[in-house]
Design brief:
The chain is 29% helix and 30% strand. With 349 residues, it is an alpha+beta fold. It has three domains: 10-128, no CATH class; 132-256, Sandwich (Jelly Rolls), CATH 2.60.120.1440; 267-338, Phage tail protein beta-alpha-beta fold. The strands form three sheets. Strands 1, 2, 3, 4, 5, 6, 7, 8, 9, 10, 11, 12 and 13 form a 13-stranded mixed sheet that branches. Helix 1 (21-35) crosses helix 3 (54-72), helix 1 (21-35) crosses helix 5 (96-112) and helix 5 crosses helix 6. The protein is globular and about 85 Å long.
Length: 349
């Protein structure tokens, strides 16, 4: 790393003891600054900061070790902001949004220590440090500064980045329902949902966006403009009652939106003659662990409105309406298999 400072007494660091948040934040800021073409004055200032207090030195040692771990990971797994800055041309600086994201991630990791690192390395870094997150089975509502309401479905991560020119949220994982509010600023700023596949610009609307391999958009009121990231010429308006899916390079044709797609905001999973295997795939989004479906019963159909607050109860009730049985190997490993065969009319001989 450019401007790397000598690391002395690293072996005496106590990694199990958490850092104060303000110290971790300062160490993260110094690490990002020195990764991004530092000046001699910045290096000297960091040296003085380290020497000012033993906790500063401890935070820096932990930051240096985290940086070494980032360097050891593949580019697709590590933190892009730091590596991009270090590969940049002398005299240039990383984008401010990238710097803020890197500082936020590092701060969280430095406060929590090794436990956080173990969790972070198995999860995309944007998801891990998102402004708003939900766990598996959790749902929550955000009211943004402009009055826009955003409902987050299970296992969702969202970043919010409003500035003078636009209102942008980034969906890093999961699913959201957006009800936009008029922008209080003049001139009005566009409201944009960004995903890895492209952008959705709201045109005074209520709509669902889900990340699931590609990006799914369903509009219930107003309209949105969908623009694939690498194929802007394919931009398309999706009106109320319509839905589509898109990737960075393509966009599907428009179809009718399922009016029950947003029932999850009321804690309901709705099914109308849905294949059992597909139903269980949807249900598994709302509970930790594994739900498996035996191929012998995969094509059975199920209908109903199911309360997501108790997924165990949904599974336990399946044999009441379908010829299946539910095998619980553990709380987190459930298999749905064919039910027992009825006895022959004459009984046993």
């Amino acid at each position: 790393m450019n401007g790397q400072i000598d690391n002395t007494n690293a072996g005496t660091d106590d990694d199990q003891r958490p850092l104060e948040r303000h110290v971790a934040r300062a160490a993260a800021e110094w690490l990002v600054r020195l990764a991004d073409n530092p000046t001699p004055e910045e290096i000297d200032a960091c040296t003085r900061w380290r020497a000012a207090h033993p906790e500063h030195a401890r935070a820096w040692r932990r930051a240096e070790r985290l940086h070494a771990k980032f360097d050891a990971l593949p580019a697709s797994v590590g933190m892009p902001t730091l590596t991009r800055a270090e590969r940049g041309t002398r005299g240039t600086r990383a984008d401010p949004a990238q710097r803020r994201a890197a500082i936020k991630t590092l701060s969280v990791l430095l406060v929590a220590g090794p436990t956080a690192w173990l969790a972070w390395r198995t999860t995309p870094w944007r998801v891990w440090c998102a402004d708003a997150r939900t766990a598996t089975g959790e749902r929550r509502t955000l009211m943004l500064a402009d009055g826009t309401r955003v409902d987050l479905n299970t296992a969702t991560a969202l970043d919010v980045d409003f500035d003078a020119h636009e209102r942008r949220v980034r969906l890093d994982a999961g699913e959201i329902l957006v009800e936009t509010a008029p922008d209080p600023q003049t001139p009005a700023r566009p409201f944009i949902v960004q995903t890895d596949d492209g952008r959705i610009r709201a045109l005074g609307t209520r709509f669902v966006v889900r990340q699931d391999g590609d990006t799914h958009v369903a509009v219930y009121h107003g309209a949105v403009e969908v623009t694939p990231a690498d194929a802007p010429h394919l931009a398309r308006i999706v009106a109320a009652g319509e839905q589509t899916r898109f990737t960075a390079t393509s966009i599907d044709g428009l179809t009718s939106a399922d009016p029950h797609d947003a029932d999850w905001t009321r804690g309901v999973l709705f099914a109308q003659r849905v294949r059992l295997a597909d139903f269980l795939d949807q249900l598994s989004r709302y509970r930790p662990g594994l739900v498996r479906c035996d191929p012998a019963v995969a094509d059975l159909h199920i209908s109903g409105a199911f309360q997501l607050a108790d997924t165990d109860n949904i599974l336990a009730a399946l044999p009441e309406t379908l010829p299946v049985q539910v095998i619980w190997r553990t709380r987190y490993w459930v298999t749905v298999v064919p039910g027992p065969q009825p006895a022959s009319p004459g009984g046993a001989a």
